[in-house]
User: What shape does this take?
Amino acid sequence: MKRLSLVLLCLLCALVVFTSCAPGGAGAPSAPPAADAAAPPAAASAAPSDSDEAFEAPRPSPGAAAAPAAPSAPGAPVGDAAAESESMLPLPILTPSDESGRRMIYTTMLELQTDELISGRRLILDTAGRLGGHHTIATVQGRDMRTQRPTERYAHFIFRIPTENLAEFLLMIENNFNILLLHQEAQDETRTYRQTASIIDELREWESMLQELLEETEEDDYDGIYSLQWQIRDVQWQIRNLETAQADLMEDVIYSTVEIELSEVILPKEDEPAIPLTPAERFNIAVSEGLGDLGVFFTGLLVVIIRAVPVLLIIAFFVIIIVIIVRSVNKRKRNNSTAAATDTQKEPGEENK
Assistant: This one.
């Protein structure tokens, strides 16, 4: 019995030793699965930043063939490391003033004053055109010719000036106008531009894979062909939209927006120092001013009389009527008094008789 137990124990120890030393045994590290060895497609491996929405590449329908996994290049970063290396790629230099190649959008607001609006307007327009810019709005509010009093004029402009020439344009403004307000804003769109470019590259890779799948699909597989063609059109539509947004962003980067409010200021004229007059000059001035005042007086009097003629005629008409009535009344009174006196003289004579 003891010998049997000893034999069984020896066999168990030999089995344990043999299992631990075997190449495919439980103690050896397991090989990585094939799915982990192959890198996922670029559209699925790119890790967007926290501030952006996650981008999900279009997937084939269940009826279509599965897309093969693209093997990763040796030493190529994967996952977050790939996204970080993508964002650190050098970009071409945009302007001489920004050697880092950042996508900056500049907006400038100006309130200016000048003593001559028309020449100032012409100077601003000519300078903007010479520097390669153009205006989107140019409005001038002038003065009414029926107004004798001088009125200040205003102008409003919105320009699109090349960013590389913006400093020269603002220097011209500073040298020729009085600046009341200068407000500048700079918006950094480098991150948006790089993320959009990365998504476009991923979509192009996905489009090429779909094209390869479409070429490998059998001609009688109508559902698979239709599904792949629909996915290719959808990817191309997304690429066009992103390229349009990127082109709009680059236009805002290359051309800065400058808004100008230009107002005209009428400065008071300085009086020249008076030169003392001689007695003869003073006498001549007094006589000429006196005659001028006399002529103005008679002219005004004649104008007043001419204006008052209708009123005077009406007043004269009523005066004549009143005079006629008064004279007739007085005449009647005199006749009555004379007749009464005659009657009183006749009555005593009759009594004497």
